[in-house]
Amino acid sequence: MTKERQTKVKSILISQPEPENKTPYHALAEKHKLKLHYRSFVQVDELSTMEFREQRISLLNHDSVIFTSKNAMDHYFGMMEKLRLRIPDQTKYFCVSEAISYYLQNFITYRKRKVFTGERTFASLLPLMAKHSDSKFLLPCSDLLKNQINKTMEDSGLDYTKAVMFKVVAADLSDLSDVKYDVLAFFSPTGITSLYENFPEFIQDKTRIAVFGPTTTKALKDKGLFADIEVPNKKFPSMSMALDDYITKANKRKRK
């Protein structure tokens, strides 16, 4: 972040679907009197049963399932239903966070199942999974994560299989006239791809860009764009915290 680019922030676009409930971004907008918009730059498409079968994965051969997102959970249970497979009662579920674990109640009778919850990071699940080292783990994921190496799992020595359950593609943003906001916040490489598919003439200029995760940062820089805010980092684990800090400093800075 350079001081020359640290100009006043009045508007921000979060490239995610607008949530039903208030989020830290709403509090951020109220605190700094910002114009806040949500607009998902990506969309999630279902995988057909034929596409799934091409992976030659037997779902019932895995007695443990790892969930890192609500999307993964939705499509795992959706695929089981489409394939008309009954999930064994003894199946174990490893959820990366309390929110994901709580969401599991939409699909199973929670009190009758073995559910293990991490502390918001994949690494925090490892000690829990290590206690079940004889299990065969299934990791439902998107097509984008299929070929990405999960070093944490690879180094663990646990028996696991990645199963693509859904596809992440660029959304149609034709209803947006432009992306002229003071800050754009991106959370995936596909969001950056979508930006250029929808706005091929996009020029960053004075627009500040916030990115979450190293792969999103790389995708941004590959397009020749500048990341003003990169998270997570040692100081700010969340996007909202980093934005709050940046906007506080930018909006208080005296102009010459």
- Please state the average pLDDT score: 90
Measured between the Cα atoms of the first and last residue, the distance is 19 Å
The quaternary organization reads as single chain
Overall, the morphology is elongated
H and E string? EHEEHEHEHEHEHEEHEHEH
Number of helices: 9
Q: What fraction, in percent, of the residue positions are helical?
A: 25-40%
Strand percentage, roughly?
15-25%
Could you name the ranges where pLDDT drops below 50 across 5 or more consecutive residues?
none
CATH fold title of the largest domain: Rossmann fold
**What is the count of β-strands?**
11
Strands across the major sheet, in which order? 3-8-7-4-5-6
Compute the CA-based radius of gyration: 20 Å
The CATH architecture of the largest domain comes to 3-Layer(aba) Sandwich
Structural class: alpha/beta
Q: What's the main sheet like?
A: 6 strands, mixed
Number of domains: 2
Q: In CATH's first tier, which class of the largest domain applies?
A: Alpha Beta
Provide the fold topology.
Layout: E1 11-14, H1 24-32, E2 35-38, E3 42-46, H2 49-53, E4 64-67, H3 70-82, E5 92-95, H4 98-103, E6 114-117, H5 126-130, E7 136-142, H6 151-156, E8 159-170, E9 183-186, H7 189-198, E10 208-212, H8 214-222, E11 229-231, H9 239-252
Parallel strand pairs: 1-2, 1-9, 4-5, 4-7, 5-6, 7-8, 9-10, 10-11
Antiparallel strand pairs: 3-8
Helix pairs in contact: 1-9, 7-8
